[in-house]
Known about the structure:
By secondary structure, the protein is mainly alpha-helical. Helices cover 69% and strands 0% of the residues. α4 (70-86) packs antiparallel against α5 (92-104). It is globular, with a radius of gyration of 14 Å.
Amino acid sequence: PLYLVYENHYKPMIKAQIALLTELAGRDGHIDERETELIMRIGTAHGLSREEIADLIQTPVAIEWDNLSLEDRFEMLHNVVALMKADNEIFDEEIRYCMDVATKLGFPLE
C-alpha cells in the first residue's frame, strides 16, 4: 500500500533532510527565523506536522546516506543550498558544509 511506502521510505528521507537542514541552519551560530520557516515549509510540504518538525529540529535523526535514490539526493542538496541562502547571508562554513553534503550524496565537486 502507498501508506507503507510513505512511512518506510519517504518519511525517513524527509526526516533526514530536516536533520541536514537543521545542522546547516545552525552553522553560523544560530538558527534564523527565515531558516526555521523554510525548514517548516519543506517539512509540511512533505506531510510532516509542525510538531514533528519542531521535534526533529531539537533531536535530529541519523542520516542513512546509502539508502537515498538519486532523486532524493538531488532534492536534499537543492534544499540545503536553498536554506544556505534563506537568511541572505552566506558564510564560508555554510559553503563548506554544502560541499561536504554534496560529496556525501555522491555528487562530484569538479
